[in-house]
Specification:
With about 210 residues, the chain is an alpha/beta fold. It contains eleven helices and eight strands. About 45% of the residues are buried. Bound molecules: NADP nicotinamide-adenine-dinucleotide phosphate. NADP nicotinamide-adenine-dinucleotide phosphate binds next to α1.
Length: about 210
């Protein structure tokens, strides 16, 4: 698959490594320009190239958005519209500035991203520490491996959610469907019990049901 990644930090950079490792073609972007990503791309090796955010969005069949949430209005909407977008972002007012409709829980950051971009947004990889995402991938079906960590995902389009679930599984984690963006997304955003918890799929299901 062709994957665009917008945001080349702890999460975006780590996902680029995982996706390249299993053979996906990756275009990765940050806010400062492709020339600042040459070291990262060289270090990862494989089918990864640096791009602008607009180029990464146009390149991907699926796009990962992994930036500080407060900057989401800088995203290239024309290139994202109608595509599957994986949203790893979390809302932290101390970093992102205040959004009144998030502070009073009228909506969620992922719904705002979906509304702004017109993409099929799937919230995923937002509830796992980048160190765990980097270090705790486990090969599928390999006997004797410690239990794989769960990645809660949520979204309004079942097809998009299925694509993202397969990707999560392929890189070595267990996807757990939390529901729609509005209901499910709230169950794995900051402050929820499963957020950054190091749990198996069964444990995640229990936490999500109780939420
Ligand atoms: N760190 C974690 O453990 C963790 C876990 C789960 C979820 N998250 C969430 O995932 C998101 C990314 O977190 P992170 O820790 O990976 O952040 P990070 O290490 O600070 O990296 C952020 C990246 O976003 C890029 N960026 C910022 N604005 C951009 C724009 N308008 N267009 C393109 N790229 C832009 C930055 O590029 P420049 O450097 O060029 O500005 C940088 O590459 C955040 O919303 C965070 O809350 C983080």
């Amino acid at each position: 698959m062709r994957i665009g990644i917008i945001g080349a930090g702890h999460i975006g950079g780590t996902l680029a490594r995982h996706f390249a490792r299993i053979g996906h073609e990756v275009a990765i972007a940050n806010s400062r320009g492709p020339e600042t990503l040459q070291d990262l791309v060289a270090e990862i090796g494989g089918p990864v190239h640096a791009a602008t955010a607009r180029e990464a969005a146009a390149f991907g069949d699926l796009i990962v958005v992994s930036i500080p949430f407060g900057r989401y209005r800088e995203l290239p909407v024309d290139e994202l519209r109608g595509k599957v977008v994986v949203d790893t972002c979390n809302y932290y007012p101390s970093r992102d500035g205040h959004f009144a409709d998030l502070d009073d829980d009228a909506t969620t950051s992922s719904e705002k991203l979906q509304q702004f971009t017109g993409a099929d947004v799937v919230k995923a990889f937002n509830a796992i520490y980048s160190e765990n995402l980097r270090d705790r991938a486990r090969p599928p079906d390999q006997p004797g491996q410690p239990e794989r960590l769960a990645i809660p995902i949520s979204g309004d389009d079942d097809g998009a959610k299925g694509v993202v679930a397969n990707l999560v599984r392929d890189i070595g984690f267990d996807p757990v469907d939390a529901g729609t963006l509005a209901q499910g997304g709230r169950k794995h955003q900051p402050g929820s019990s499963v957020y950054t918890a190091e749990v198996s799929a069964d444990e995640a299901v229990t936490l999500l049901r109780a939420a």
